[in-house]
């Protein structure tokens, strides 16, 4: 996914070499580290050599940053996340180091095309969607705003699956991103920690028979080995570390077992360790609940905490000062088991009593909640938790006893409320509630948009919020403008530079200076030309990959994100069908040519989501093949949506689809990427859409549909979708067409249950919002016909969304949660 131009950073770094010197360096690395000369080097070898050359230049900044943090005794931030959706890193590093153009020239002199080898870099997809991408944006922003930080996660050998579309269906294939090695990472064999599972807990008593401490004797042990990737901030301000753990058998050769003749036993143990870092669970906002998942959560939490404590002790010598020198952040509840793990390490290993350990723990952790969906709130059956982590189970009970005592002492909670505060869910099977555990173990709990934070206070955490009223706070998500504007949209970046100067490169909110150019016809033309070029790039890609011809002068309407019923791709598809009907029934009308793009992965176990992908493809086939549509409407499903695909699609969008059922999307970040690249949003008042509207203004966004409180009210009062569907001719016709097999003649019943679901319950309120959505789409057509008005709005979007930078988000975390300077 090549880009024509690249952004030149004005102030090159002082040590930036000339292209000849860089070319010589590349040749040297190719020869002595890759072991090839130019006659036999493959394109992968050139890629490896180029990455290693930048990596070398990063190392000095890296060591410097690490040493400074040590010398100045700076507080460090530790960001624990089971997901980092990184994408490709080479351009990121070139761009942030200000050496993109020199590197390009150096490679040209060696007969190598930078864009061609950049395409070969695997897209590191160690995450599912928004949550993982947020972690990646945060890592880049923490380095940019100069916070000493480490990210901790798992080095999955197979990250997110690769999606292929076969006969319209999603097929999941393993993504083997490490096939050609990973030139970015450093393996740290010496930085390895043992992690235990199972076994039993023994009590050690003193000579008078008093309990001294508990000792956990795990039944199994594995080794977590560190792999470090440097994370470069803008202009290489700072280089931080992303440390990912890989599972290994404790004794790599397992000599005892092997020599004793137990070859299979030796193999089994090796496989067990390996399994911990083999695959990323591919469910996003969806139930998972496998034992291996809990093992992964504990594996990386324990290794990270042991590492953090070792670093702290070696510098400060005692753990009482931990909260002053370390802020540990839990990205969702996936690392929530770190709370009892820190307690265990403090009490059982370092001999600190419960009260002090609890005080240290709560002052050290912060927790971000990412979802209110009941099916995504993590909990584990007590018997499983107890079998895998017997000592942690005891500690969870002890914490729970302390919390419930505190709650009862206030005299403000009745039995039901106490039951909801409890870390243990008692109705049905007994389960450990990871959200409650993360909440009570943290001094700060944040939501990710203003609306989501408010709903969190009113719903999932209402009782805990009442008990601890000062803990919940909001930190609206953000995106890094380096990747999501400078790198992915060099055309727009250059245009902005020549129009308002370079200040926005270092302070993205200064892009507001573009606002007044919305009224400047000359600027609008240039802006439209950039958009046109980005659309042509996407059109070429779609023609090459899918054989579908789309017209770059049509309105590009894009919905790319995980496929989930609450995100309502179905609403969009049904509207496309209704529009298709209209175009055929009224050929005389002046229809706005549109291309509707879809992209996204479904969790492999999520039946309806996979069916929605098939429906999008079935509908595309019929509409694209119908000559009576005269090309006025096309539908394209772009396979394998990932960061690299997003980097091509965001800049090419005219319209951004953000149409979740109000109250269900915690924030969204795709909405921010689109707006920053000059797309107008059609959306519900959900997640960060609310704040996007506040910033871009009502005239520059298309809001429709039920609000969050109205959704709740409808549900409470017995929502009747059937009556609504029957009252909407367009909707009932579209549903009838799908239901009767118009789009699936080979299997007419394929979508019957999916459509019946709309009549019977329609939990996501597709029917309730359909007419308002269709009407908003037609008013969008009207604005599109007035091209100057459209581009003025698009320009205002770009100018007014600088606030949604992850630099701003991170500065808020630094000040309000972590208490570190930024
Ligand atoms: C930004 C991003 C997301 C999140 O998209 P939403 O629309 O906020 O759900 C998911 N996947 C990728 C690859 C992204 O870049």
UniProtKB/TrEMBL annotation:
Its cofactor is pyridoxal 5'-phosphate. The keyword Glycosyltransferase applies. Keywords: Carbohydrate metabolism, Glycosyltransferase, Pyridoxal phosphate, Transferase. It comes from the Bacteria. It is an enzyme of class 2 (transferase). SUPFAM superfamilies: UDP-Glycosyltransferase/glycogen phosphorylase. This is Alpha-1,4 glucan phosphorylase. The gene is glgP.
